[in-house]
Specification:
Keywords: Cell membrane, Hydrolase, Membrane, Metal-binding, Metalloprotease, Protease, Transmembrane, Transmembrane helix, Zinc. Its cofactor is Zn(2+). The protein is mostly helical and 266 residues long. Helix content is 66%, strand content 0%.
């Protein structure tokens, strides 16, 4: 009985498989220009792929916690990749998608509850926190590899733009989530090494860290400097700011269409 339960705790959820299927189908529709409205297809492709990356981000936290001593992870459903099993569905899925829609910023939300008392060793605690954004870095590497390897010759520009925007989301997610701000994984990495007094003083601010970062990024000077840095990183990986711009413009199908970007959409 316990063996069957253990297997079901780790079986990939149909919900996740459904989201992955949407990613594959809409990605194919963008690639082949099959969709009646390419902008909606780009929106669905990037959004579903972003949700897949959110699920993998949280799975990395959960899997690392399991191997670090928190055996309660499986029973909570975190190993099934089902986003509906997360502690806060709003923070985990809805809020990050809203961030993308509003500002083109990749910010994962808090999701899996880890019983830290079961885990021994500061290095393990740090690794659990680092596992999520490291997954975003891996996802970013997958998205950017076709660009810096020169594998996109002859590929439809609309798909190229969509992939460039998805890469931007993954890079921003990794960088922002590694910030040492309470509530983000970057703080979780260094938290085990801080004094108890300092941690107690900072703890009340943790629920607001994510929103604070998003709010600060709305300051024009900060936003400009941040995205100039992101453009420099992506430029070094073969992705131009024009490609990410057009990717975002096509993604935001409800906004005014850029004539240059639109010229690539039939």
């Amino acid at each position: 009985m316990s063996t069957a339960s253990s297997r079901s705790d780790r079986r990939i959820s149909p919900v996740f498989l459904g989201i992955a299927a949407v990613t594959a189908v809409t990605g194919w529709a963008v690639w082949t220009d099959f969709a009646a409205d390419a902008r909606i297809a780009v929106f669905l492709f990037v959004t579903s792929a972003w949700i897949v990356s959110l699920c993998l981000h949280e799975y990395a936290h959960a899997r690392t916690a399991l191997h670090s001593g928190d055996i309660s992870i499986g029973a909570k459903g975190y190993l099934t990749l089902n986003p509906l099993k997360y502690t806060h569905a709003l923070l985990s899925i809805v809020l990050p998608v809203i961030f993308v829609i509003m500002g083109g910023i990749g910010l994962p939300g808090g999701a899996v509850f880890i019983e830290r008392s079961r885990i021994r060793g500061r290095w393990r605690h740090s690794l659990i926190s680092a596992a999520g954004p490291l997954t975003n870095l891996l996802f970013a590497a997958v998205c950017t590899a076709p660009f810096w390897l020169g594998l996109l010759d002859g590929v439809p520009l609309v798909f190229r733009f969509a992939l460039a925007f998805l890469a931007l989301l993954q890079v921003t997610a990794a960088i922002l989530n590694f910030l040492p701000v309470p509530g983000l994984d970057g703080y979780g990495v260094i938290e085990p090494w801080l004094s108890r007094k300092f941690r107690a003083q900072v703890e009340p601010f943790a629920p607001f860290g994510l929103l604070a970062v998003f709010g600060i990024l709305f300051i024009p000077e900060v936003n400009r400097a941040f995205f100039e840095g992101i453009d420099a990183i992506l430029g070094g990986l073969g992705i131009s700011d024009l490609e990410t711009y057009c990717g975002q413009n096509l993604y935001r199908f409800w906004t005014t269409r850029d004539e240059f970007c639109q010229s690539f959409v039939s």
